[in-house]
């Protein structure tokens, strides 16, 4: 006898649409963390912005964008005719609509970055409306805790030990050091001394990763430098070598991965899933590192992680952003079975000083992944107001 579902008549009522009534942007200013770039940012520079999506049902969602807040504000104005009145309970469809209708303006860059924050906020809304965490909405929870690696800038060797030791004593047991003088002083001895000082400070059992930061302006080194550096890093049990050559040098990445004794990672500057395909197909990465606050949001990040898995490439999200970016990475980490690490900027006010409750490490140096509705964290209005010109307008519908 054929089965006829009558779930529509007998099951729970479908959620009523939540229409988007406004999207607000909060550029973060005042304690912007140093980036280690050749043209260094200042504390008052805007490099991150928060996004608030408000709905007619009184539920708001929040996201993060790794871009100058002025560009995010301009992008939201451009996108407004496309998102106003849309159903906030359909994050993937709404985000794809924004991508599809702005393709002619250039895929990637400020528009894609802004859509990333909107997408994160829409997933937050969907979770709050259904009472489920984003991780469960993405398909389920593979883990309840995940190890964060403390992301720190490189310093001179005599300073490096003190820098990492402070965070080791806080409880971190995985570290990434990057940028700063590494590869920029034409001194392989200096590069090695920085890595040696770090390894000595954290001991043999802590995980250590190294980020050359070759997406910096006027990066001076090429493939041969990267190969020599990789061989040095192997002596210090470095888990991966990140951005070792210029970010557009696909063939150099392929050759570096082929010859390097340590795993090669990259991809943080790429946006949308289409741009990752040639890198994965050519075998450029051992580890792929899309940034959820730039690449297109949670919807796009998940697709890239799935695609990477099919190529045998490990996924570790790039997360040099804010508490909301970290919250999104945590939800992705629980929903993707191979995601065992998240990035955590050491000492950033935008990670540690925006939420009502701080992120805390357990005895093993891991973070609990929230299983509350949405992203599972709450912004503190008073704390946010310290870093943005109009926090009241940001939180108000």
TrEMBL record:
GO MF entry, a single one: lyase activity
Chain ranges of the Mandelate racemase/muconate lactonizing enzyme C-terminal domain: 157-263
BP GO terms, sorted: amino acid catabolic process
InterPro entries, per the entry: DgoD-like, Enolase-like_C_sf, Enolase-like_N, Enolase_C-like, Mandel_Rmase/mucon_lact_enz_CS, Mandelate_racemase_C, Mandelate_racemase_N_dom
Domain of life according to the entry: Bacteria
Pfam families to which the protein is assigned, alphabetical: MR_MLE_C, MR_MLE_N
Cited PANTHER family: D-GALACTONATE DEHYDRATASE (PTHR48080:SF2), D-GALACTONATE DEHYDRATASE-RELATED (PTHR48080)
Name of the molecule in the record: Mandelate racemase/muconate lactonizing enzyme family protein
Species annotation: Tianweitania sediminis
């Amino acid at each position: 006898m054929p089965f006829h579902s009558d779930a529509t008549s007998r099951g729970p009522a479908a959620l009523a649409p939540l229409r988007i009534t406004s999207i607000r942007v909060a550029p973060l200013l005042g304690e912007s963390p140093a980036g280690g770039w050749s043209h260094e940012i200042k504390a008052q520079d805007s490099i991150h912005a928060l996004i608030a999506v408000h709905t007619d049902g009184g539920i708001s969602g929040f996201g993060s964008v790794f871009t100058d807040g002025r560009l995010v504000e301009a992008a939201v104005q451009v996108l407004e005719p496309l998102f106003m009145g849309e159903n906030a309970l359909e994050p993937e469809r709404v985000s794809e609509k924004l991508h599809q209708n702005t393709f002619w303006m250039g895929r990637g860059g400020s528009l894609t970055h802004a859509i990333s924050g909107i997408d994160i906020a829409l997933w937050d809304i969907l979770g709050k409306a259904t009472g489920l965490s984003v991780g469960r909405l993405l398909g389920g929870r593979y883990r309840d805790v995940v190890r964060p690696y403390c992301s720190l800038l490189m310093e001179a060797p005599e300073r490096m030990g003190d820098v990492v030791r402070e965070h080791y004593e806080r409880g971190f047991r995985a570290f990434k050091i990057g940028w700063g003088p590494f590869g920029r002083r034409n001194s392989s001895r200096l590069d090695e001394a920085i890595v040696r000082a770090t390894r000595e400070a954290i001991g043999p059992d802590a995980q250590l990763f190294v980020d050359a930061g070759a997406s910096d302006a006027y990066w001076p080194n090429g493939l041969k430098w990267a190969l020599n550096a990789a061989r040095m890093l192997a002596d210090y049990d470095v888990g991966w070598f990140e951005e070792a050559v210029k970010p557009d040098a696909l063939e150099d990445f392929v050759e570096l991965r082929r010859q390097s004794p340590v795993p090669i990672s990259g991809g943080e500057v790429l946006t949308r899933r289409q741009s990752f395909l040639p890198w994965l197909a050519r075998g450029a990465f051992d580890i792929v590192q899309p940034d959820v606050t730039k690449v297109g949001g949670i919807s796009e990040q998940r697709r890239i992680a799935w695609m990477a898995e099919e190529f045998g490439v490990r996924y570790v999200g790039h997360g040099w952003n804010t508490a909301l970016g970290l919250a999104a990475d945590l939800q992705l980490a629980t929903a993707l079975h191979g995601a065992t690490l998240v990035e955590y900027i050491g000492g950033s006010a935008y990670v540690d000083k925006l939420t009502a409750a701080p992120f805390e490490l357990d005895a093993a140096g891991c973070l609990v992944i929230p299983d509350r509705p949405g992203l599972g964290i709450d912004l503190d209005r008073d704390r946010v107001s310290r870093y943005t010109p109009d926090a009241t307008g940001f939180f108000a519908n």
